[in-house]
């Protein structure tokens, strides 16, 4: 996590060359903040464009975060051009580089240090194989479950052992059976990260790692409570002890600001993008992002835009799709739509007030 050294250098060098005031290693080693405004006094409105740029082990940019950074830079350059043309506009542009989205909770750690304090609204886009204004972003937390038993010779004295792997398998099976009673919007996916080293030794340690997701934080807690019963049952059934650790960086669901979202929709449609109805829009897929946590602090949007691919995120095929000329061109369109959205919010009387009113109403 937080190892995006090359991306950090490339992005910050570019922004500095474009005249932004850049703060490298902002809060986190590979995070950054770049600001631009022309007035002598700091402007009244602070618009934030977010860049992500971390990759995934094995599938590299299988989630297209390289394109998120490109879209963010495109939007930033477009907004900067408008500030230069209209030097009297009271607009401050902040480009926030947020590393470690894939499980590291970069934005969450930055929020804890008030990185988004003073931001009036935040926008970013994400590549996918579909266009969505209101993507189905789920609350997420991780759980690590460690079972401790007692080793023994598996052939000579198996009765002397307490099998931690059996406890983990029991718990895994219990979770799988519980899925029959899951709500359609609940998710629980886990792997074994430890389960013994030699088959002739009763495993005295086994570890499960789970990601748990639900539509909102309240349902997430409800689901996690249910799963704890499964994990404890594995220990009870085998005589093991169990320690359950929850992640300290939970990802929140996304509170999409509809005022910002509809402005982005209109701007992107003018540039050729199309969208389904809202219900279909929300039902196309589900994922989690630390941008959800940002949306709890400032008005935010996180629309997705479609690359010309049938492959899905987190695959080798999507990694390949994220590095084509066509995908870069599509990303540029998304970046332009972001820039137009920010400018519309600032230049259209009353819109920023509406954005904030909706945010505080739903907070």
From TrEMBL:
CDD domains reported in the protein's UniProt record: M20_ACY1L2-like (cd05672)
Highest taxon in the source lineage: Eukaryota
Family: Belongs to the peptidase M20A family.
Residues annotated as domain Peptidase M20 dimerisation: 141-233
Pfam families per UniProt: M20_dimer (PF07687), Peptidase_M20 (PF01546)
Molecular function terms from GO: dipeptidase activity
InterPro entries for this protein: Bact_exopeptidase_dim_dom, Peptidase_M20, Peptidase_M20/M20A_hydrolases, Peptidase_M20_dimer, Xaa-Arg_dipeptidase
Protein name: Peptidase M20 domain-containing protein 2
């Amino acid at each position: 996590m937080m190892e995006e050294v090359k991306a950090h250098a490339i992005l910050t060098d570019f922004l500095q060359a474009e005249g932004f005031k850049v703060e490298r290693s902002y809060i986190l080693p590979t995070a950054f903040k770049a600001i631009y405004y022309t007035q002598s006094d700091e402007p009244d409105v602070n618009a934030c464009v977010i860049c992500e740029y971390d990759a995934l082990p094995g599938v590299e940019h299988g989630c297209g975060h390289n394109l998120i950074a490109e879209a963010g830079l495109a939007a930033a350059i477009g907004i900067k051009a408008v500030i230069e043309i209209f030097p009297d506009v009271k607009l401050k542009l902040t480009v926030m580089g947020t590393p470690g989205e894939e499980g590291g909770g970069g934005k969450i750690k930055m929020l804890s240090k008030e990185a988004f304090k003073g931001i009036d609204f935040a926008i970013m886009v994400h590549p996918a194989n579909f266009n969505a204004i209101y993507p189905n972003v789920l609350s997420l937390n991780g759980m690590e479950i460690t079972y401790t038993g007692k080793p023994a010779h598996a052939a000579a004295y198996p009765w002397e052992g307490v099998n931690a792997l059996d406890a983990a398998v029991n718990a895994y099976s219990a979770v799988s059976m519980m899925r029959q009673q899951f709500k359609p919007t609940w998710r629980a996916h886990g792997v074994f990260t430890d389960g013994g080293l030699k088959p002739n030794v009763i495993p005295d340690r086994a570890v499960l790692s789970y990601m748990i997701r639900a539509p909102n934080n309240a349902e997430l807690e409800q689901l996690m409570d249910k799963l704890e019963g499964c994990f404890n049952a594995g220990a009870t059934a085998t005589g093991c002890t169990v320690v359950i650790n929850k992640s300290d960086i939970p990802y929140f669901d996304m509170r999409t600001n509809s005022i910002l979202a509809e402005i982005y929709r209109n701007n992107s449609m003018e540039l050729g993008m199309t969208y389904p109805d809202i219900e279909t829009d929300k039902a196309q897929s589900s994922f989690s992002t630390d941008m959800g946590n940002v949306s709890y602090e400032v008005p935010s949007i996180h629309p997705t835009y479609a690359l010309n691919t049938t492959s899905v995120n987190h695959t080798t095929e999507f990694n390949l799709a994220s590095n084509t000329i066509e995908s870069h061109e599509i990303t540029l369109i998304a970046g332009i739509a972001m820039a137009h959205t920010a400018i519309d919010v600032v230049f259209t009387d009353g819109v920023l007030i509406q954005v904030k009113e909706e945010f505080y109403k739903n907070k």
